[in-house]
Amino acid sequence: MKITVFGATGGTGRHVVEQALDAGHHVTAVVRDPAARLPRSGDPRLDPVIADVMRPGAIEACVSGRDAVVSALGPRGRGGGQVCAQGAQSIITAMRATGARRLIVVTASGHVVDEGDDLLNRALVKPLLRRFLREGFADFARTEELVRASGLDWTIMRPPRLTDGARRPYRTALDRNVRGGITIARADLAHAVLAALDDPATAGHTISLGY
Question: Could you list the residue range(s) of the whole structural domain that residue 87 is in?
Answer without folding.
Answer: 2-210
